[in-house]
Amino acid sequence: MPFGQMDRDVFWKVCPALIFLLGAFLRLFLFPEVPPGLNQDEAASGYEAYSLLTTGRDQWGNPYPVHFPGWGAGQSVLYSYLTMPAVKLFGLQVAATRSTGLILGLLTLPLVYWLASAVFDRQTGLLSMLLVAVMPWHVMMSRWGLDANLLPVFLLLGCCTFHLATSGAARKVYVWIALVPFALALYAYGLALLIVPFLVAALLVTHRATIGQNLTTWAGSLAIFMILSAPLLLYVLKDYFLKQPLWVESLLPFTIPQLPAQRLTQVSSGLFDNVLSNIVFVLKGYNDGLIWNTYSPFLPLFLIPLPVLAIGLYFLLRGGRAALGNIFLVWLLSCVPLLFAVEINVNRGNALFLPIIVLSAFGLKELISRLSSARWQRLAAGALSLWIIVGSMSFAARYFTSYADTAAPNFRAGLGVALKQATAMADHDEPILVTDKIPLDYMNVLYLQAISPTVFHQDVEYSFDRRGLYDVHKVDRFYFNKSILARDIKARGHYTYVIGSQEQVPCQAKPSHQSAYWTIGRCPAEQLRTSP
């Protein structure tokens, strides 16, 4: 083998491995301490996994539901089901809850390399993998446990299995599983219902010539997709259309809960407002200003401005009608309904980002390859690599230092310690008042105190707020409503409190513990202040 050829072979073996190690470092370093604490959404996913493990039901008592009622408007179930093994092994620990997002985030890197290489070429695959490995959006989403963050990787996995089933001398086994990840994606995030049907239909149409050669097996694959999708479609039928129980429910091995509120109506402001808001979102560089999605001054896709995507689309569409069957273009176009249906942010629009990254990488590769000489091509590739390295190093330097302090309040950093201090201070049957100033206050307590789902289901007191969401007032001896506490507390008793460090102390007694974010103390019953 000539030395030059051997050198190239080593390059194509070593480079993907080095990029994967870089991506793994950015996702594993200081995991799970950064981000610090726990967001209420990942607490909800983790607690649902714990509830299913210990009782076979979700926190509201539904046996193996296809969609969680959650806080009233529903929560997707796939993250919790996939997290059950980690919770079984390690309990309700932050690392266990976040492990699902971490593992699937790491899995994205080799998958995007393989698929981009197969659809385009190895240069595009390598550049796509590098961009995903260092992209602030993907680094940040891999490090915490939001259910919606599973959608991109399951769409990617579906595109991989579909490509396997339609390329070359594909084995029939690939055809049988080709659409399975797309069906699972429906359980990853509710907005997948606006993407997956269009994506599957478009892929089947654009690859109809190949599919027609093995029509019987593909009909079986589509049947498997429909069977796996059916439970969620029954949920949609019940909750969004009929709004009453289905006659088949008693025959099913799973539950279809009736939700008190509809999530879609809460994230949509009407067609015109949705489109206008989403245009602004794209022009701002996909920046939603949410600390768990972006960290100023770095945009979620800071290495890919919009013109770079336009270059990729230009070079792709020069290929004529055949380019319309490109799997990444089909994926991107299948996300267009999102732009009309809801006001997207990084979480709601995350299905867009992987095809944007790959198509942009293709455009950059094509742009470099058209330079006049090999020398200029090497210089351009070096400049691009330097741009990526400097950008990613700048982001990492800020993310692993100042980001933790900035994000801490949004991830309730220190709340677990504060609750332990409060329970240690209180008598065994003494009520504990917990601040109602944080979203889903009760969810954090359920998770951090590992309260039995049976206790929660039997003891919870709640009402519904004006949006139709659960407003939980009390769980076990933890209270989130001062009026309910005043009703229950003994006249000569005491209560312990955990409130934010900026909140007013609810009695005259001085706090016992204070930290940067929390204040803990104990008060006589007669000094309970029920007014704000």
Secondary structure layout plus pairing:
Layout (H helix, E strand, L loop, with lengths): L2 H26 L11 H16 L22 H13 L3 H26 L2 H13 L1 H6 L9 H16 L5 H6 L2 H6 L10 H11 L1 H5 L2 H28 L20 H4 L4 H13 L22 H12 L9 H8 L1 H6 L11 H17 L4 H26 L2 H6 L7 H11 L6 E3 L6 H8 L4 H7 L1 E4 L5 E6 L2 E2 L2 H7 L5 E7 L12 E2 L3 E7 L8
Helix pairs in contact: 1-4, 1-5, 2-3, 2-4, 2-22, 3-4, 4-5, 4-7, 5-18, 10-16, 15-18, 16-18
Task: Quickly list its features.
mainly alpha, 7 strands, globular, 532 residues, seven-stranded mixed β-sheet, disordered N terminus, single chain
Task: Please summarize what this structure is.
The chain contains 24 helices and seven strands. With 532 residues, the chain is mainly α.
| Tally of alpha and pi helices | 24
Q: How much helicity do the residues have? A: 55-70%
- Rounded to the nearest angstrom, the radius of gyration is 25 Å
Percent in strands: 5-15%
Tell me the total number of β-strands. Answer: 7
**Largest sheet report:** 7 strands, mixed
Shape: globular
Low-confidence stretches: 1-6
Span between N and C termini? 79 Å
- Which structural class should the secondary elements be placed in? mainly alpha
**Major β-sheet strand ordering:** 2-3-4-1-5-7-6
Average pLDDT, rounded to a whole number, is 92
Plain-language structure description:
The longest helix has 28 residues, at 215-242. Strand 6 (513-514) and strand 7 form a beta hairpin. The protein is built from 24 helices and seven strands. With 532 residues, it is mainly alpha-helical. It has a seven-stranded mixed beta sheet. Helix 2 packs across helix 3.
